[in-house]
Amino acid sequence: MNNNPVVTLQENASGFFDKISEKHSDKMQCKKGCSKCCQTDISVFEIESDRIEDWFAAQEPVEQQRLLDLWQTPNQETYCTFLYNDQCTIYEARPLICRTQGLPLYVASENVLDYCPLNFKAGDPPKEDWLNLERMNTLLSFAASTEKKDKRIRLKKLKTKLLTTLK
């Protein structure tokens, strides 16, 4: 059993994504190779960047070197810094927000439901299939502040750190 609250949140988000994408497989276009959601540079809490660093450190040296070599090549500026050839190179350790892209995300304070425009073209899914984005962000923020890891880091900066300190 894992006691890291961020890992638990990430696993729960991935499980929810799997459940909803299986339930709505005919309505969701999310699949390997689709990177429409990855056309941005995001920032994550330190606690999530630490998880990415720990994941990288746990890789075999050959895999670490392969990633370092890949990350030294430029990718499209408008894409996530870890996206190469429409594939996430940190997929196993990807941040919470990346695990929820494509899902019906509900922002209660604004009474707004948002999801990828490629998904649910015939209309909104039932309310029980919505993910409350504010609740998820509150849990992540609480976990980060509890660990005193509540500063945010841009993924580009994290990649630069990995390239310079882990060679």
Strand % is: 5-15%
Number of strands: 7
Unreliable runs, pLDDT <50, ≥5 residues? none
Rg, alpha carbons:
16 Å
> Which sequence of SSEs, written as H and E, runs from N to C?
HEHHEEHEEEHEH
Q: Please give the oligomerization state of what you see.
A: single chain
The order of strands across the largest sheet is: 5-4-6
Summed up, the domain count is: 1
What average pLDDT do the residues reach?
Answer: 91
Write structural notes for this entry.
- The protein is mainly α and 167 residues long.
- It has one domain.
- Helices cover 44% and strands 11% of the residues.
- It is built from six helices and seven strands; from the N terminus they run αβααββαβββαβα.
- Strand 2 and strand 3 form a beta hairpin.
- 23% of the residues are buried.
- The model has no long low-confidence stretch (mean pLDDT 91).
